[in-house]
């Protein structure tokens, strides 16, 4: 009986020691794991990209890379976004800028018969994109008429708001006509209609144009940025009539020279005959007693 009692005591002690050892090992393992987890954010940050957003002025655009002078004066190299839709040049245009065949798009309300129910307030001018487009990009760049999607069994609405995309056929004081795929669409324009250039390239951009960049870089160098969205804007207005230079003939130049000589002679005579400005005596001052 005593032997069995002491055997049980020894067994319980061994189990307790084993459990204590396992517990210590578990605590050590958790501490090591916690240390690794605590260090991992720094390691991840060192090897991951950082998001950036800034504004500046365009300096140059060569070999597919933009050079932008950030507002703080730093020169940043920006690689355009992979998606052409996220790379856009925006400017205002006048009707004189428009040409037959130029691509345009607008949003308007039309009846089932194709008659516009209200005048168009804004027309966007763009250039075609290469490659196969789908989804929203297709509805922006591929000629056609795009409305709300509906089931086949749904009846055609009597009035619907649609996006019209196509080449310009013509425009006058009353409206604009666009070849939207196989369908010509005519719509009136408001008197203060806005024409906006939205080119997905920098063919019209110039040095000094404003640039807005959203992208990312690999730290610590924030002067090399991969663009996620880049917008270039300018205050130039395309299509404004330029002031015609005055053409001078030999006779007009000779007359201008003679008038200039007469003006110089008259100024000399006036300077000789003009009396000098009279001196004005300074008022006397009285010392305070």
TrEMBL record:
Residues 236-289 are annotated as: Disordered. Residues 254-269 have a biased composition (Basic and acidic residues). The chain crosses the membrane at residues 9-29. It comes from the Bacteria. Keywords: Membrane, Transmembrane, Transmembrane helix. Residues 274-289 have a biased composition (Low complexity). This is DUF5666 domain-containing protein. It comes from Rubripirellula reticaptiva.
């Amino acid at each position: 009986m005593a032997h069995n009692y002491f055997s049980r005591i020894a067994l319980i002690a061994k189990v307790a020691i084993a459990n204590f050892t396992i517990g210590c090992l578990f605590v050590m393992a958790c501490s090591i794991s916690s240390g690794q987890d605590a260090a991992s954010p720094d390691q991840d940050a060192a090897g991951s990209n950082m998001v950036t957003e800034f504004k500046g002025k365009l300096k140059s655009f060569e070999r597919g890379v933009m050079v932008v002078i950030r507002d703080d004066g730093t020169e940043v190299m920006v690689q355009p976004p992979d998606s052409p839709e996220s790379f856009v040049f925006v400017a205002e245009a006048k009707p004189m800028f428009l040409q037959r065949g130029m691509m345009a798009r607008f949003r308007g309300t039309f009846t089932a018969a194709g008659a516009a129910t209200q005048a168009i307030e804004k027309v966007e001018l763009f250039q075609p994109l290469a490659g196969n487009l789908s989804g929203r990009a297709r509805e922006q760049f591929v000629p056609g008429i795009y409305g709300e999607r509906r089931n086949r069994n749904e009846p055609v609405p009597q009035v619907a708001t649609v996006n019209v995309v196509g080449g310009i056929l013509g425009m006058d004081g009353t409206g604009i006509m666009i070849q939207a795929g196989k369908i010509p669409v005519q719509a009136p324009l408001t008197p203060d209609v806005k024409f906006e250039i939205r080119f997905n390239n920098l063919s019209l951009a110039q040095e000094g144009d404003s640039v807005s960049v959203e992208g990312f870089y690999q730290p610590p160098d924030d002067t090399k940025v991969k663009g996620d969205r880049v917008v270039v804007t300018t205050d130039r207005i395309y299509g404004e009539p330029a002031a015609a230079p005055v053409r001078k003939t030999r006779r007009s130049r000779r007359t201008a020279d003679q008038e200039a000589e007469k003006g110089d002679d008259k100024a000399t005579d006036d300077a000789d005959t003009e009396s000098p400005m009279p001196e004005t005596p300074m008022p006397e001052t009285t010392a305070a007693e």
